[in-house]
Records
---
Amino acid sequence: MEQKDFIPIVQLCEHYSVKISFFNELHDMGLINITTVEKTSYLHQEKISDVEKMIRIHQELNINTEGIDAVFNLLQKIDSLQNELNKLHNRLRLYENDY
Amino acid sequence: MTYIDYYKVLGITKKATENDIKKAYRKMARKYHPDLNPDDKEAEKKFKEINEANEVLSNPENRKKYDKYGKDWKHAEEFEKAQQQQQYQRGGRQGGSAQYSEQDFSDFFSSMFGGGSAGGRGRNVQFRGQDYNAELQLELEDVYRTHKRTLTVNGKNIRLTIPAGVKNGQVIKIKGYGGEGVNGGPKGDLHIKFSILNHSKFKRDKDNLYTTIELDLYKALLGGDVVVDTFDGQVKLKVKPETKNLTQVKLKGKGFPVYKKEGQFGDLYITYKIKIPTKLTTREKELFEELAKLR
């Protein structure tokens, strides 16, 4: 992992107008992974899209971090079911095209 | 243009207090928020309706106007004129929000409240548009080299550069290609998930490739050359004499390109599977027996 792939949490707090405690709570929930290097906390850039979604859910829907955790678990389940459904549809289409 | 019952949209009665409206709106928004309903057009539509209802009912002035003229929306224009006249006399108009996007509201709303936001103090909550998810199926050979591809997502053509080495299940985000924002909020993003199909003779593990080639018994015993296919053309390999079955050799840098690291490649691992000759002739049998006696 390169340093440039990480974004300081302080910068994210400023950008999204969120308190640092929000990120710490997400970290404690296991929803994000904060890496600390020389007393500065960082978040990997791959997680930005998820974090943006968590912030929206928190700010727009007044959902706390426990709720976000539950929402994300359910969204993951939906995603995997949707993928499974797509695969089955594709497979079914193969048979339907044969006849 | 049809009348919209905003109370019904929020599931409340006309007697609802400000607090009831707020509660009902929060409850409905949690149910239909685009982040919680990915790829759901119906939810997106419903979410817009809820916002419109909230825009009107959470503002006492607009609510009053809606209650008075809602069903008879055609009179709203006259009401608007009278209001404007009054405002003019008071010395100026109250401004709507500059970030308002007309297409986010129904015709009914526009007719009642004009093209801008619901006027007055204009509580204009903006929401980001829905993220769209799409899956793109590619063959392993396709992602060996960086290439461009045109995709059609929700009727829009998107020219996409697919970097070499993209992995199965990897998701890339294209900013601003998702659903329209609500109340002039930013557009959502498009997430493309790559599904890499592999019909090649190679097995891929991260950036390394694995393949098995058959080696005839004589070449395994005496050594020789074999030609191996790679994604980058054919490679001639020297087989050492007395090579054992399932020996693995590594071709450095002949694996798969490393994602977004130009010029870097994984390795190619080749396993030799020794093929035992069958349907031996009488002469061959004699020679093998002779060999056996020598051991």
---
Amino acid sequence: MDIKTIESAVEAILFASGEAVPLSFISNALEVDRQTLKKIINNMAQRYKEEKRGINILELEDSYQMVSSPLYYDYISRVLIPKRRQQLSSAALETLSIIAYNQPITKAKIEYIRGVDCTGSINKLLERNLIEEAGRLNTAGKPILYKTTLEFLKAFGLRSLNDLPPIDNPFLAADEEAT
Amino acid sequence: MEALSFKTQSFEGPLDLLLYLISKKKLSICDVSLAEISGQFFEYIKQMQEDDIELSSEFLVTASQLLYIKSKELLPKQEEDTKEESQEDLTKRLLEYKKYKEISQIIKEYQSNGDKYLDRPPEKIDIPFEALNLQIPISKLISAFYDVVHKSERKKMPKEESFKGIIGREKVSIRKMSKRVLEVLNGRKRVKFIDVFKDMDKPHMVATFLAVLELVKLQRILIFESNGQIFLSKCEKFQKIEEIKFEFE
């Protein structure tokens, strides 16, 4: 398979998929090793950006997604009426921040930090697909663990969790001896 | 309404004043006998012609406050330590919380970047099922099957034996076993001693053995030896087991 074909296939896959597609899926489908494919896709993404195309390819952790370029958001919004998405409340944002830096984390831990019940914010974040369940902690009661989603990265313009603003000693590290 | 005045060794006056003095640490609660004060209060109540709800409730409030202070005073001071600790804990927690509160504001700004990327839901493609190249190795399927089996096994009612040691042994009554022995002997000329204990666990065996001894003693059954083997047989005059009076009961 020549590079041109690979690029076109990637383009087709990402277009048809709409949502983020893990690199491994594309790699399996095209029978191209991941490292090479990653380079090719990143190269494509770079080109899309440089040429100021209407479409961008976003890298989200180890997945890729095709999205419209923010440069043309205003034009899009003249054609499509954007859904008035409610802003996240500051409570939800706080909860989201705690999860982002300490994932996977239980509701009890979040509530311990915030000092208030977080059921509402957690449900809201789940509803917005910003967080998801990540199994259960193997302690009494087997509490549900939460982590952020790829949707979270996209919504906040992050490529990976490493792009989060630095924070000194996340809670869990400091908390280990406390629990 | 006039406030009642109380008099004890170290204090004289209305109850409000007492509470005030104690809260200002002018007087130690330990020096005041609350029993004496409530005793005096009951005296007042008795002397009064009719019940004065207001007076009584006022006394109750103040007296319970005093009682609370005193009981707290009398308790060992250990509590203070943990309180301090939790204070420290709380400070730590608040600092932690403050950190996330600040960062959440920064993250909020990030949102405006991300909000302008628009995507669309995945294309729905109708492909016949056979054409789907489901890349699931058979080994995965097998392990999934084992998971199902394992799960259904876990959901099964636990066997009775697994409760041994958790719940006490079944109590085997000698009366019940006596009845059984008689039932076994009923209509038969003789029964081997060993056969009476067939398929029994230890508690049943013990109870049955005791039952045999009792029945022999009460002359309900006979026990005899023949050809080196022990046999049991019923006595002629048979009596219903319910009517037998056991000595051990």
---
Amino acid sequence: MTPALSTAPEASAPAAAARKMLEVRNVRKHFGPVVALDGVSISVEAGKVAAIVGDNGAGKSTLVKILTGVHQPTSGELVFDGQRVVLHDPDEARRIGVETLFQDLAIVDDLTIWQNLFLGRELTWGGPLRLTRKRAMAEQARQMLSGLQINIPSIEARVRRLSGGQRQAVAISRAVGWNAKLTIMDEPTAALGVKERTEVENLIERLRDQGRTFLLISHNFDQVMRLSNEIWIMRNGRVVGHRRTSETSGDELVALITGAKSAEIGIRT
Amino acid sequence: MTKPDSQTGEANVAAPPVSGQLARFARSSKLLDWAIVLALLAVMVVGGIASPHFLTVANITSILVASSILIVVAIGQTFIIITAGIDLSVGSLVQVSSVMIGVAVTYKLGVPAGILMAILMGTLFGVLNGVVVSKGKISDFIATLGMLSIASGTALVLSNGRPVSVISPLLTSLASGSIGPFPNIALLAATVAIIGHIVLFHTQFGTHLFAIGGNHEGSRNLGLKVGRIKVAAFAISGLLAGIAGIMLTARIGSAEPATGSSYLLNSIAASVLGGTSLFGGRGTILGPVIGALVLMALLNLMTLLGVGVFYQPIVTGSVVIIFAIAYRFQK
């Protein structure tokens, strides 16, 4: 199956010419005898929000782990910003511009906000000791947050003291603030209350309108309908549908996810 | 320290209510940050009242000297505990390092060579600990428990179970020399503490230690080299145990295969007294240093007051448990 075929139902859409930030081509992932991903092909357009929906066990998490370098695909390839890439570990994914907002946020409570923003990419004076440049990091972190219009009382505060929405905002800032070319968001609002969820969604909308590229994984159909431009539907380790968000509905997504409506693509192998 | 509602809720989950008011008081103040300093002051005041000899310059100097080895081991232990781990092998590493100096003397290699061998031996065992933990993917508890046995066995084999008397001007100067009023051995411990503080709070490695201890999975997801960082932390703990072995040999004038086991429990005790969280992600260097001073000052005071040696471990253990409970209320 060629990538062109896998997106065949899309051919009529005008977006065919749009620049792809990410293409996943026929990726398979086996864990021993278990097939977690069975030839998955998706793509994400630059400057847009693509969403992946699917039931538990559909393979979304495995796909995210492959895109973030945690797992390596058994076969298939990743094309990122026009270049074929092989990601051996999460550090490598971050270095080429794939940042991720993890479900558990990957925030360290007892570190300050700026330390969290710089985690893994600390500014140092080099040398064997790698002494850190604290003041420069705090200053850049402050600029990063104000550039993203995020209101945080003090950059020196420990994350433990922040509210749920503020913590989320710090994690999102880190996932977009490093000139990320693609930000993957794995259930970005699953742990939040209604008010905080709205704040986070507004932030994502604002960033989308600034031309950021997102891949959104969410259980929340309303959220997917509000935020995304296109939707990939997964079931049992396969992509079983692809829709423009403007041309589908929550009901149709449910039907595709559960299999009530038969799959259209991705299951011909 | 503010106390928003959400945090009070969080803290309650972590620490089941013992006494509501006490808990609230502890949470609402910075008191616990200073607990170990207050404890040191309390020991000083009580000691000064109870014994006229306690606060003399000579006695304070002897407390400093007696604390030095423990301080060095406790700093190493703290590096591990911050990553949410534990190093049970430190006491045996002190022994095996001490024995290396005896080996050097026995084979006429000279004490300086023995010092080098002690440092290498401690570091080597530390690296082994780290590799077993990160590559073997077993818990630090089991890995270092095994290493405890291997290292103390190695010490017995290499020494044939017999102490070797070590006479060296270098070690004598370390044990009993001083610069001004400060004993050399205490200055060595202070140097280790300063370097430890810089590494922990002013390097990328130090930040990553806290990150791994605070959020292991998240650190891995963010691309931190968790395995390598753990190996480095255990290497540091081993290196410091090696240095402590040299200090111990200097203090007792011989390389003994069977001393040093007390450093295991006492290093964990000093670290916990000093506010290092056994859950990882939180700790300082100054805290464990003062923790070690409190422990040794207490022992010193009990000796001065004629409390039997057999009672001392009971008091030490009780103090550690009381502090551990108190710290549960800390955010």
---
Amino acid sequence: MSVLLEIKELTKYFGGLAAVNNLDMTIHEGEIVGLMGPNGAGKTTVFNLITGIHRPSKGHVIFQDREIGGKKPHLVAAYGIGRTFQFAYLFPDFTVLENVVASFHLDPKCGFWEGLLNTRAYQRKEERILDEAMEILRLVGLEREKDILGKNLPHGPQKLLTMARALAIRPKLLLLDEPIGGMHFDEVNRAISAIERIRSQGTTIVLVEHNMRLMRLCERIVVMDFGEKIAEGTYEDVKNHEQVMRAYFGHEYAA
Amino acid sequence: MSEKQGKMGVKTSKRYVAYAILIAFLLLLPWLSLGGAYFIHVCILIFTYVIATSSLRTIFVSGQASIGHAAFMGIGAYTSALLSTKLGWTPWVTILLGAITAMVVAVLSGYLFSRLRAIYFSMVTAFFGVAFEALMRSGGEFTGGKAGMVALPGMGVIDLPGLGEINFATSKIPYYYLLLFLTLFTLIVLYRIERSRSGMNWMAIAQSPLVASSIGISETKFRILAFAVGCFFGGLAGSVYPHYSSVLSPGSFSLMPSINLVIFLLFGGTRFFAGPVIGVIVLMAIPEVFRSLKQYAPYIVGGIMLLVTFWMPQGLAGLFESAKPWIFKMFGKGANPVRKEFSNGMRK
């Protein structure tokens, strides 16, 4: 398996606080990797550093042999990294389908003049995009909700929609930030089967989550605490790791 | 699916018939003897403001509430006026150059402004407007200073194949047709852009710059694009008018006219393409209808604005849109997809 993303000595200071400290991490093509840790461990900051929302204070983010640390978010998306956010950020005044269609912006030849003149080629392309968007909605199981406005969806489907949106850019790497956070039981099942379907299509996934059921899907888990990596390994390795227990439950509870 | 498309087709062709009737009506309007030259003058003003307000709406659609749009009209106006008087070029060319100059200034300033969002963007565009007016006032001989410019050349006499000679100096009617043509051109272009992917990107940025960037939309690029397109047509509206009225004063492009454009826009409804058209027509008509109360017109407009803000935050067009289900119910047409007009995403 070739290396898709390599993070070297990644460090981010907010004022005097090191939110991420000397983090090393490697993601291989086709993998599904979990990133976990207590609140404030720096998981989301890692995502934000990869996708260019924050600029690293130190260290490197290398995606397909290209340094992307500190690049603008829209460029990072163009390189092939899709992401969702911890909260269900979406386009509230677009319908579900429009949310996904809008996310095909990176599809080649979306020119200003073609759109203005509404050429044949442009129309055909938009029709194809419409079909592909429906396909993605079927993948995450939202095809029945396609005409509902984003803001009128319940929280669970909203999160599924953000996943669909990230998929629309045809990412080589998909970063999911708490994909099932705040969902109720049925929605969790829906989300997990969606993630499994995405995975079976060969997309590399990194996900931040606390839910152990989702973590069991991961081939590898990286555990962070106070911005540093404290453990790495399979689900079974990490589950009984002493430092992980201590990070989550405190000193008294550690074995 | 195909049945649905068929229905859509019928709806679209009905719509085209309605547009054809409307345009035919507008073409015949000057010959209906409705108040003579003054009526034509008001129509020309309305056309100018429709171009200006619709182009301002384009900028608003991308999430940029500009309060300096009149300054870009002014850039068009002064460019066209200066080129036609100092260099003696024909207004037919300088009008276009005025619009292009406004667009170029918009690209340059828009690059700086695009770092600012929301109220900070509005403030800096307002300052830009104030600075522009001050600059024109202090221009001395060159810009005519406080008094502005007078005796600007009109559109002259042109020879159109099939229509013969058209003399712009003897009547207002040729200007009516010129403005009508420019208004239709502007509306069609703006509508097409808004319904294309560029328009979708503008709306995406307006709703959430963060999400838009995560799917690869460059906020800077598309905000500048919206600003440039809006200011091009703003400049166009501005550059035609002085050749019609033959005078130009810096006060026409200060902060207050910019705010007036925003009022037209908010009154009509920002979310609807027809919003600015409705807003301009109604608000321009009010002072004309209450002519005997002319000195109270600002108070009437102010009062109406308060009502609009509290009772119909979507503007007049929004009021009509939300009343649609009621209207359809009354005529027994059944459920109507109200929100079709709301989001622009899909073309038919």
